[in-house]
Amino acid sequence: MKVKSIHTYAATPAVVFAAMTTADVLTEKYTTLGHKDVTITDRTETKGVLRITSKRKVPMEVPGFAKRFLNPLNTVEQTDEWQPATAKGERHGTWKVSASGVPVSVGGTLHLLAVAKGRTLVEITGDVTCSIPLVGGKLAAYVGGDVERTMRAEEDFNDSYLARGK
C-alpha cells in the first residue's frame, strides 16, 4: 500500500527541519500522540547527513483478522535520514519503521522545500508491504491506514508546535 502526506507549514525550512529533528521535540510529539516509553536512541550528523532513530511503544486498535500478527501495543523503531540542505534550503531523505515481531515493512522518502516566503512544504511518501500469503495485502492496508492517521496527527502537532514560536 502506498502512503502519502503533503503538508505546508507556516515557517521557514530551517525552522521546520529543526522541529522535525530535535530530540526533545520528537519526544514531546510522540508522547502527545499517546506513544509510550519514547527514546531517541541515535541522533548523529556525519558529513551533513543527519540520522535520527527513535524507539517507542505505539498503541493500536487491532482488528480480529490481524490479532495473530499485531499487538495492541507494538514496539516501533523509526530511522529518518536527512541529506544536507541544498543552496535553496531544501532537504531530502528517507524514513524506515520496523515493529518488533510484526511482519510488515514500512518506509519511503522525505522532502522539505520552501514554497513561499516563510512557508515550507513537507512531502512524505512510502510503501507498506507484508509478505504473508493470503492476508498480507489486507494487513498492509490496515497498517498503511494507521500510518496515514499518524502522519496527520504529526502534522497537527507540528503546526501547534510551530505556532508556539519555539
Question: Secondary structure elements and their pairing?
Answer:
Layout: E1 2-9, H1 13-21, H2 23-32, E2 36-46, E3 49-59, E4 73-82, E5 91-99, E6 104-116, E7 119-130, H3 136-163
Antiparallel strand pairs: 1-7, 2-3, 3-4, 4-5, 5-6, 6-7
Helix pairs in contact: 2-3
Keywords, please?
7 strands, globular, 45% strand, alpha+beta, 166 residues, 7-stranded antiparallel β-sheet
Description:
Strands 1-7-6-5-4-3-2 form a seven-stranded antiparallel sheet, covered by helices on one side. It is an alpha+beta fold. It has helices spanning 13-21, 23-32, 136-163; strands at 2-9, 36-46, 49-59, 73-82, 91-99, 104-116, 119-130. It starts with a strand and ends with a helix. The longest helix is centred in the last third of the chain and has 28 residues, at 136-163. It is 28% helix and 45% strand. It has one domain (2-163): 2-Layer Sandwich (Alpha-D-Glucose-1,6-Bisphosphate, Chain A, domain 4).
